[in-house]
Structures are given as structure tokens and as C-alpha cells.
Amino acid sequence: MTLDSLQLLFFKNYEAATLQFTPGLNCFIGDNGSGKTNLLDAIHYLSLTKSALTPVDANSIKQGADFFVVKGKFSADEGADAETIQVSLRQGQKKTLTHDKQPYERMADHIGRYPAVLVSPYDTDLIREGSEERRKYFDSLLSQFDHGFLDVLIAYNALLRQRNALLKLAADRPAQGFDRDYLLAIDDQLAPLGTNLSQQRATFLERFTPIFRQHYQQLADGREEVSLTYKSQLLEADFGQLLRQNERRDLMMQRTTAGAHRDDFVFLMDGLPVKSYASQGQQKSYAIALKLAQFEILTTRLVAAGTEAAKPLLLLDDIFDRLDDKRIARLLELVADDTFGQVFLTDTNLARTDQALANVRGDIRRFRVQGGTAEQL
Ligand SMILES: Nc1ncnc2c1ncn2[C@@H]1O[C@H](COP(=O)(O)OP(=O)(O)OP(=O)(O)O)[C@@H](O)[C@H]1O
Questions:
Q1: Rounded Cα–Cα distance for residues 85 and 71 (Å)
Q2: Closest ligand 1 atom, residue 59 Cα
Q3: pLDDT tens digits, one per residue of 224-277
Q4: What are phi and psi of 345, to 5 degrees?
Q5: ipTM score here?
Q6: Structural domain ending residue among the three candidates 304, 335, 352
Q7: Which atom of ligand 1 is closest in space to residue 39's alpha carbon?
Q8: Is 30 annotated as a binding residue?
């Protein structure tokens, strides 16, 4: 699958821009703050319906404008008809997503159809931040991998919101009494969904972890052992029973204190937490290995779905600035040996990019990015 072109209107620091891409390697070159990452983020919108950088869509509207449009033309195979995906948002309204001008009934139906993997300076946040970051990352990956998972996740989150709202209402208006039957009715539905989520995450990790470890060994020359495990109360205890046991505490805390939304993914190096034990370089390798494993596992899904030629889009943000020569060389080996399909990368220095890519075969297209404009070189 290839992104043939990208069109932007009032997106971040772009007023209007159109870019035509090569199916090979596309390089965005420009100074800090010129708008390179914003181009990757626009592609992220087309793939995942949201920004990789901000949870608030309105932040992506150009300052002073009242809407943005991001439009991309994708083709599955060479010569195949292009499909147009468009994401747009008007200030104060709901975001819309269309496929060949047809609006999706549910944004979720789009997820996984045009997968993309972003390797970004913020990847190590996965290691440093709290469990929510990690759950979000794996849930997003699993949703692209298996649509059934996303359906369960959406249903679980909706019920959890209802349950938390009820707990809050009980605390805010004690005089009106607490509708316990309603709580039990929610719990009856929430329990199997939570158990299902945790089981799916655990099964996915069994597949994902060996691929991840292999990528880490290749990136870091295999000096240390890394592991990745999933920690969930729901794999050992009955979630329905946990909800009942915790009812009083939940009422006091005004939120659901146990469940799949509390699970975590544990990152270890030589048996110790990566966050406190690993060096910065090792943390970077750990995070990149996660992303490369993500790329590989999403590719296997596309192959299984019969779209052999299809590979996720790979978005490499700022890799030359952040990574040492060995890691860059390893990444570029993967680019050179056709492991990846279409690649988009950003850099501040054209000469450095050209030098790094000197041995990479295939089509390379460069764009000069400057103050919200992008011109093909
Ligand atoms: N909604 C918006 N309206 C206008 N400008 C915006 C908006 N959102 C972000 N920007 C601008 O976009 C610029 C950042 O662009 P981007 O992150 O793409 O830079 P970059 O070229 O990747 O830089 P670096 O090399 O430092 O990573 C900033 O100058 C920021 O002010």
C-alpha cells in the first residue's frame, strides 16, 4: 500500500500544501520548527484518524483558521485505482472521516486499513511514563492488528464510563439513594469484556515478545537480555468477583479501582526495570525495537489478510539527530533490504541525509520544508 499524495489545508503551520510521494523513500528536510513532523502527523491522521502529538484535534487547526483538512490518496498495488481518505475538522464540530467521499459510520471501522508505524523522539515516553501510556500503545497496536479487539475495547470503555459516572453520582447526591441494581447490571456486562481484553492482550504479547526480543538483539548487538511481560489481575482472579469485593472502595473512591484499565506492561532488562536500570541509549534501543516489532507484526497481519504487497507506512521522525551511527546503520539496512515498504523520514540536514542514504537502492524523493511549505527538490 502506498500513499501517492497528501493535501493539507490549514493544518498546523500549513495553509495549503500538496505533496506527491514516491513508493520508496520520502525525505522531509528543513530547520527545526519548519513543519517536518507536522507532515508525518498528517499521515498519522490518515492512518489512525488522530494526531500522534496532541490528544486535542482542535490544536491541529492552523492558528487563526477555523477548520483543517488532511487528504491522502492511497493505492493498494501499482496501477490500482487510488482510494481517497480525508480527515477534516471544523472548530466546535465533530471530526469527519471519509473514504472516497463516503463518511464512515464509525471512525473505528477505518483503524487497521491503512496501518502506519511512527518511530519518534517521544517513543521512550513509553518507558518513562505511567501504565496508561503503555496500555494506550498496545491497545492501539492490537486494534490495528485485530478489529475484534477494538470493538471489545470500545464497549468496555463505554461501560466503564457509565459505571464511574454512577459511582460519582452516588457520592455527589447521597440523598437520592444509590441504584445498586444498575451497578450490578453494568458489572454483569463489564466482567466478561474486561476478562476478554486482558486475555487478548496476553495472547498478543506471546506473539509479539519473541519478535521484539529479536529486534532488540539486532539493534544492540545482543549484550543484554530484554523481556516484556503483561501484568493483569484479571488473568488470575474472576473480574466479576473483584468488582463485588471492591464495591465499597469504588464507591468511596468514585471510580472503578480494578479492571483491564489498570493492567500494565512490564519492561525489563536483565531482569530489572528498564526505566531505572537501562542507560538512555539502551532505552532508545528498547523503544525502537518495540516499533520495529510493531512493523513486523502488522505486516504479518496484512499478509494473512491476502494483501501480500502491502506493508505499513513507516514514519521515521528525527532519527539522524537522535540515534548513534550503529543504530542508524541498522535501520537503514532494513530500509535497503526491502523489509520496509514506503518510508517517510525527517532531517534537518540534506547533506547528512544524502550521505546516510548513499547505499540505499530504490527511489528516493526529497522535499525542502520551510515555514509551512514543502517543495520537492
Ligand atoms: N495549530 C497550529 N497553528 C500554527 N502553527 C502550528 C500549529 N501547531 C503547530 N504549529 C507550528 O508548527 C511548528 C512545529 O512544526 P514541526 O513539529 O513539524 O517542526 P519540525 O520541522 O519537525 O521541527 P524539529 O526539527 O524541531 O522537530 C512550530 O513552529 C509550531 O508553532
A1: 6
A2: 1
A3: 899 999 999 999 999 999 999 999 999 999 999 999 999 999 999 999 999 999
A4: -135, 155
A5: 0.97
A6: 304
A7: 18
A8: yes
